[in-house]
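Methods, example record. To illustrate the input and output format used throughout this study, we show the complete record for tRNA methyltransferase 10 homolog C. The sequence lines were provided to the predictor; the line carrying structure tokens was produced by it.
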Amino acid sequence: MQSANVLLKKIVRSSVLPFAAQHGMKKDLFPLSRTLSLSLCLKQDNSGSPSEKLDLDAWKTVMKSGLQEEVSETVSEPKELSTLAAAREILEMWRLAGRSVPENISEEQLKTFMECPSKSAKKKYLKYLHIKELYKKNDKRKMDEKRERRQEMQKQVSETDVTKRSSFICLWANSMDKAYNWRVAQSMIFGQPLIFDMSYEKDMSIREVANTVRQIVLSEGCNRRSVDPFHIHFCNFKDDSLYHKEFIKHYREAWGKLLITVTDQCYTDVFPKDKLIYLTADSPKVMKTFDHDKIYIVGSMVDRSIKTGVSLARAKRLGLETAALPLEKYLLWNSGAKNLTLDQMMHILLTLKDTGDWKKALEFVPKRKYCGFVNRPVHELKRTLSLINTLKVGKRQEEVRKQFAKNYAKKLTQK
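The corresponding predicted structure is encoded as:
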């Protein structure tokens, strides 16, 4: 009979308890005072043993505690999935949908992504991260290619006898540096001054100041390698300015060893006004020849928005003479502003100083800005340039021929 008892307990456990768990352990399913007694036949047969009663209330409490544990486990699983994990799932879904989503994203970027106020803002932020990641991959690829090329060059050098010449090349470079420094040192005593006006920091952004300093560094290197270099002056230069910080970034320890003159004074306080000429593209006066007795001033400014008249206004306030390069006289200028970079100006001035030839000097103007040098009268070249521009715009050849025929007929009538 004990085996029958055990069998009955198993039946109750396998049938009643799952049923109670599925129905949420409702109280009306099991009354509070009800107990399940074994059948009388079982009690009579098992007279020697005490009567066994199964308390359903105890079962309910046990099953309710077990069910709560199961429910807490199921509820804790989505709680464990934090907002970051949910955001990562959203990103994965968007990536599968074909949207521009970065492959690797940090927790801080995920937090900023979740803090975006709208869905369009989230898309824009993800697109920004995706483009940034592509730039990093491209830079890494370029660095790897440079490393591979460097390794190949090293292998080629090791295979040939170029390593024997490296000591000679280093000796030659050191001797040339000494010669260049000697020339610049002589120019600081006997050379013609060239002034860089460093008073345009307020008119530029941080990026434009960095570009300006980069161009001045190139100009200083070009001047140092010249046969007859200028004596470079940095006027209106203030310590702890953006110019100063950018120069220290480029030169580092060599900043204090440069053979140039740096002063916080204005050039009108250092040099006489009658010898100063301010070079600006906005000047109405065109420079005809290079004067070795004059002191030329170049504005240290790179302006992407092209604010016209800034340097011209400064020169007028100081009562200085101004001049512009004769670009239209020697070049068939194309569309665009007649502004040149500082290193291009340095190349032009050095060539004019050495040769006095405008054609050689203006070869340093970028070729995309002009169609060619002036070999014929200017009005004929302008006419051909207008014809080229009309063809570029896309007008029909018939209209161009008609216009040419009208102009030709007018010329005949005038004769």
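Annotations derived from this record:
The radius of gyration is 43 Å.
Strands lie at 35-37, 53-55, 193-197, 231-235, 261-262, 276-279, 295-299, 321-323, 331-333, 370-373.
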